Every structure is written in structure tokens, then in C-alpha cells.
Amino acid sequence: MRGYTQKTMSLLASFIIAIFFSFPLTIAATNASQLDSQSTDTTAFDSDTAAQKSLTDYIKQLEMVYESDNNSDRESNINSLAEDQVGYLRDTYINSGMHIQNAEIDTKVLTASRDGSDMKIATEMTTVITYEYRAEDGQHTDYSSSTDIHNIILKKITGHTYTITSDTLVPEEETDVASSPSSSAPLDISSDPGLTSEQVLTQLNSTDMSLPPHPYAGAKPVVEPQLSADYALKWTAPPYDGDEREDYNSDYPYNGELHDCTNFLSQAVHAGGLQYQLYDYDPYNSLNWKPTIMFRNGYTWHNAEASYQYMKKNAYNIFDDIRMDTGSLIYVDWSNSGKMSHALMITSAGRIFLETGEIRFVPNISQKSRNRHNEPLQTYVARAVKENPNLRWHPLATRWIPL
Fold first, then answer.
1. Are strands 392-398 and 329-333 parallel, antiparallel or unpaired?
2. 96 phi and psi, to 5 degrees?
3. Helix and strand totals (H; E) in the chain
4. What is the pLDDT of residue 98?
5. I need a surface site. Which of 43, 82, 178, 371 has the fewest CB within 10 A?
6. Which ranges are annotated Low complexity under compositional bias (predicted)?
7. Under a CB-based contact definition with an 8 Å cutoff, are residues 390 and 188 in contact?
8. Domains by residue range for the chain, with CATH
9. Three-state DSSP class for 260?
10. How far apart are CA 198 and CA 236, in angstroms?
């Protein structure tokens, strides 16, 4: 009788804890969602055909920069601002052995306001790059896509003409909805330092073909890599190539346009075969792994730091090289604080033959918040480093176990 009572009391306490913690954090999640979806005023831009033409012309310039993939064919009339904005991204494709055939940029103006005769707009840009490359089995054509938000200033130079004088990329850095409890401690950076951006770029430029780790005979993966990657590729490609509710699997919770990277990664890992775990009703219990626990976001499912700790203990191995194979995970510490704040997955990888005769191992990544579909990791890193040069990268490779 006493044992039964203790068990009952333990479950009751766990239930009360879950209910107690659910209310304030549910409100926080709701507020975050409201901020993401709040109505925006684009009247100033929508009613100004000159401003619209200026943005259209600038987008054409950006597309031209992408498509001019060697110095000999770069056109002299390309805007220097456009070159500064995406030229370094184009170069990462070239460096990875990918020859850009076409670039298309779709825009959506989110906000617009006047500053005297000038105009400021926040614009969502989705860039689709079609490219060719030579692999071990011959020539291939593929595509990648990425979505970013740009703050643009249009300066009026005549009564009916604007010129774009500034284009600032809004940093991707994410705020988790599943906030850390006050007792949560950062990583011991001395024992788990991750990789600096300089180390990552050096590895990606290497021609050492001894990596990544491959499966071995008589073993199976804890998480099936291709199944995970297939899920991530499906839900980042059209018609799901955005960060709004309709771009996500409705079987799972949605945390808002800026807060769902780890939730999405967990979905892909689950699609690869990692099963839910529920030891009690406490959403903060590090042993639990489930999307929702008692109407509350599961901490290890939605929070990047908690997810990293869970995955390296249960399904993946810490790896000291970013060049990993399909299905591997990458966690990012944006502020080098010892706590992860972002998560993404390698969704394809392979050897590419460069015209110089060199061979590179090229991983491509997919993620949500913001949506990226099979983008070269080198491109992703170059953009991230420009936003924050001090961030740290924490690779987790697929774990193989004996049959």
C-alpha cells in the first residue's frame, strides 16, 4: 500500500509540475507567435510604382550577380551593392564545384515606412539557385533555396525615381520558445568546444577524402539517415518552402516563424526512426523526448541546447569535422556562450570534382526558421559568419551500432 501511494504521489507531483510550468510559458509562446504574425503595413510601398520598379531592378541585379559565376563574364553594369550583397555567396558555389545556371529571387514586402521622401522596407527574399556539378557518376543538375529578410532603404533622387542605398541582412539568430529553466547550465566549453567558423571553413575547403565516417559491415544506424533527410527535404521544398503554419506538418506543434528550427529537426529525426520517450509528465525532464507533454512543449524536443544534449547521449556521436554524411546534425551556438541556439541537418553530401582536378566533399543542409532547402553548407557558413564571426559549430554524426 505504501509503495502504491508513493508511486501515485510521484505521478501527481509530476502532473502538478507540468501544469504549473505550462501556463507562463504557453503565454510566452503565444506572445511570440503574435509578434511573428502581426499585421504589417505595406501601403507606402504598394501605392508607389517608382519604389516597386526600383526593387524589381535591384532584384534583377542580384540575380545577375549569382549567374555571373566567373570573372570573365561578370557584366560591368552590375550594381556594386548587389555584388557586395550576394557575390560572396556566389563564390561559395564556385568553390564547391557548382556552376550556377539560373537564379530566381521571389520577394515579399513585409513592412514599409516613409522617412521624409525616402522609404524603408523589410523584404523577405527567397532565392532559388539551379546549378550543375560533376560527381563520381557523372554530370548532375540540382537546386537549392534559401529565405532571408532584408532591410532596404530606397532613396528618392527625382520625383519618380528611387535608388537603393542600403541592403542589410537581418541576422538569423533564433530565440527558442522552449526556454531553458533557471537551473540550466551552459556547456563546459573546455570539454565540448565545438568548431570555430575558421576551422569549419578550412575543413570545407580541404581535399582530404578520408572523411566523413561511413557505415561499416554488421552495423545499423540508430536513426536511419536517408529517412530523416527525406523528411527534411520534403518539408523545405515547394509547396512547403516557407516558415508559416501551412509550411509545416500539421501533425506537430508550430511555434511561429522564428522559433521552429529544433522542433523541425526533431521531426526529421523521428521520421528516421528515433522513438518518443516519456518517463513522467514533466516537460523539462531531460529523459523525455516528445513534442508535447501535458499540453506543454517538450523541452528536449523544442529547445536547441536540450536537444543537443539528448541527441549526443542517445542517437548521435560528437564529431570533430563538419564534413559529415547525409542525416547528420549540426547545432550552432550563435553567441559562443556554451548554449546551443540553432539546429540544422545535412540532407545530402558527396564528392564533387572541380575543374582544377581537385575533389571536394560537399555537404548540403536543410532547416526551418529560416527555410533553407539543400543549401551548400559552405554557403550557409559564409552567410552566418558575416552575421556573427564568433559563433561555434557542434557537429553530431550518425551513430552506428552492431546488429
1. antiparallel
2. -90, 5
3. 10, 15
4. 96
5. 43
6. 178-192
7. no
8. 43-169 (3.10.450), 195-402 (3.90.1720.10)
9. coil
10. 28
CA distance 157 to 317: 57
Low-confidence residues of the chain: pLDDT under 70: 1-40, 69-77, 173-190, 210-216
Whole-number Å distance between alpha carbons of 188 and 337: 10
Amino acid 142 reads D
C-alpha cell belonging to residue 244: 508559416
Q: Give the pLDDT score at 258.
A: 74
- Give the contacts of 107 (CB within 8 A, at least 6 positions apart): 55, 59, 123, 124, 125, 126
For the entire predicted model, the pTM comes to 0.86
| Residues sharing a CB contact under 8 Å with residue 130, sequence separation 6 or more, in sequence order | 100, 101, 102, 103, 141, 142, 143
Handedness of CA 238, 385, 326, 300 (dihedral sign): negative
Tens-place pLDDT, residues 27-55 = 333 333 333 333 468 999 999 999 999 99
- Looking at the chain, how many residues does it have? 403
**DSSP strand pairing (329-333 vs 342-353):** antiparallel
CA-closest candidate to residue 81, choices 160, 173, 153: 153
The residue assigned the cell 529565405 is 147
Neighbours of 135 (CB within 10 A): 15
